[in-house]
């Protein structure tokens, strides 16, 4: 960006700060200024126009140092933008594109994008028809996602939300998708842990982190998810699929509330501004599945996060985001403390477009599992009364326990979709009847799936598009499948 003098000569306008409620400043002058325009102060600090009321300009400042009353400011006739390009891969930057680590070797991209772009309208979109694999068996089999879907991840603090997202990032990056992680007002230690995870999994060079800490200016924190979405839109235009994680929007809403109250905007429910729904919906509408002239279709999949307190799903911001997104995955603290990982509450989790992306086999498996687990939960509640159980009920209870043990998955572990389906079929057909055998077979299959020769064998099992035929294929190949347990 050029100097204050350059923009003063270019626009011929300047204003004077007459009041400061840091990070909001109130300015007199600048008759031609527009909302969301960047303004430059004489000391070099940057801000963005937040609102214009009766000729007075409200601007939010991006730096920690407050502006002095009487300081001069000029308009730039530019919108807030971020440098975008493949050069960002493997780097951790702030919402304006500045690397957080001064020692980071960083070549700034030449192209820039405005942070607040208009979402593509319905004529430029495609139906979500391709399944998105997370590598987490419980999600892929019971709450499936589609490529281009906006799925909310919601739960109490420390219930494994970030762990679930890390597994999803690892799976998608290995499939060639660019992952963009927006860490909104996070502790520096949390950002460091994220970087260490990516380094251990050797996927750092395929992920971009846009991070702000709680010590940054609320104005800069507010821009974090918009920067992530602007970068995703660059890759969208290049024909590359992207996955955007917004962690988390409840924190983003709190900082937007702070900015609005300082700007004297009328507070609504829970003191949030009246346009909080519009703010998040405009952001999340930028994700989706889009038409592309060269590759046919390209997607931006968005997984926003909301942190709730004591399992209360009825909060203002959480219900707002639920209304905007295409479903939600609810991580329950009670399930978490029982030792289940991921701690997903299946009955309370919803996916509105994910099932339409499944083929017939996966859809039938999803339906079969849902019906079985519903019946299992009823039988488990009935068994608490101490009634004498039949052998059939006992068998179903043992089978249900084994299914949940299969769903209990460490977050570092990713399971290919074919292995998930094969193992679940073997469990439901009593070919596997204990946890030790299940774990050994699972490890052997994951290992075998990485080999081209055995991959062909798994592909042959999947040739049928019918659950009955698939189960028969598993029965016919049971000896070969059980032999995979000896690979561990």
Structure in words:
- This protein is an alpha/beta fold and 488 residues long.
- It folds into 3 domains: 75 residues, Beta Barrel (Elongation Factor Tu (Ef-tu), domain 3), CATH 2.40.30; 276 residues, Rossmann fold, CATH 3.40.50.300; 127 residues, Bovine Mitochondrial F1-ATPase, ATP Synthase Beta Chain, Chain D, domain3.
- It has 16 helices and 19 strands.
- The strands form 4 sheets. Strands 8, 12, 13, 14, 15, 16, 17, 18 and 19 form a 9-stranded mixed β-sheet that branches. It has a 6-stranded antiparallel β-barrel with strand order 1-2-5-4-3-6.
- The longest helix has 24 residues.
- The termini are far apart.
- 41% of the residues are buried.
Tally of separate domains? 3
* Number of E-type strands: 19
Remind me, CATH topology of the largest domain? Rossmann fold
Radius of gyration equals 26 Å
Give the percentage of residues in beta strands: 15-25%
């Amino acid at each position: 960006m050029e100097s204050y003098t350059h923009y003063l000569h270019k626009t011929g306008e300047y204003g004077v700060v007459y009041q400061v409620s840091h990070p909001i400043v109130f300015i007199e002058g600048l008759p031609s200024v527009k909302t969301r325009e960047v303004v430059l102060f004489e000391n070099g600090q940057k801000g963005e126009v937040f609102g214009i009321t009766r000729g007075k300009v409200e601007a939010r400042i991006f730096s920690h140092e407050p502006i002095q009353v009487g300081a001069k400011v000029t308009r730039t006739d530019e919108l807030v933008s971020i440098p975008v390009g493949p050069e960002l891969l493997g780097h951790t930057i702030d919402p304006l594109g500045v690397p957080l680590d001064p020692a980071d070797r960083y070549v700034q991209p030449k192209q820039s994008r405005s942070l607040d772009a208009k979402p593509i309208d319905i004529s430029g979109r495609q139906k979500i028809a391709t399944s998105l694999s997370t590598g987490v068996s419980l999600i892929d089999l019971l709450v499936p996602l589609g490529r281009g879907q906006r799925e909310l991840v919601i739960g109490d603090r420390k219930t494994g939300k970030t762990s679930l997202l890390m597994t999803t990032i690892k799976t998608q990056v290995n499939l060639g998708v660019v992952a963009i992680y927006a860490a909104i007002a996070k502790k520096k230690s949390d950002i460091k842990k994220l970087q260490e995870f990516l380094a251990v999994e050797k996927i750092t060079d395929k992920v971009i982190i846009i991070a702000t800490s709680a010590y940054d200016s609320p104005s800069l924190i507010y821009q974090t998810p918009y920067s992530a979405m602007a970068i995703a839109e660059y890759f969208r235009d290049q024909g590359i699929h992207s996955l955007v994680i917004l962690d988390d929007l409840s924190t983003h809403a709190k900082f937007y509330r702070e900015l609005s109250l300082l700007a004297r905007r009328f507070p609504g429910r829970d003191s949030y501004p009246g346009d909080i729904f519009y703010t998040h919906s405009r952001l999340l509408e930028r994700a989706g599945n889009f038409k592309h002239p060269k590759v046919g279709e390209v997607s931006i999949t968005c997984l926003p996060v909301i942190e709730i307190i004591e399992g209360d799903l009825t909060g203002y911001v959480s219900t707002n985001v639920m209304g905007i997104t295409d479903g939600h995955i609810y991580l329950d603290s009670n399930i978490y403390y029982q030792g289940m990982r991921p701690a997903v509450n299946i009955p309370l989790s919803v996916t509105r477009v994910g099932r339409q992306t499944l083929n017939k086999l996966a859809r039938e498996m999803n339906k079969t599992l849902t019906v079985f687990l519903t019946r299992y939960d009823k039988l488990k509640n009935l068994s608490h009364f101490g009634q004498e159980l039949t052998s059939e009920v006992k068998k179903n209870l043992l089978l249900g326990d084994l299914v949940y043990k299969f769903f209990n998955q460490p977050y570092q572990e990713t399971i290919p979709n074919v292995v998930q389906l094969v193992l679940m079929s073997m469990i439901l057909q009593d070919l596997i009847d204990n946890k030790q055998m299940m774990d050994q077979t699972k490890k052997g299959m994951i290992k075998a799936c990485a080999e081209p020769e055995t991959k062909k064998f798994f592909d042959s099992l999947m040739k049928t598009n019918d659950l009955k035929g698939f189960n028969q294929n598993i029965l016919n190949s049971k000896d070969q499948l059980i032999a995979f347990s000896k690979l561990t």
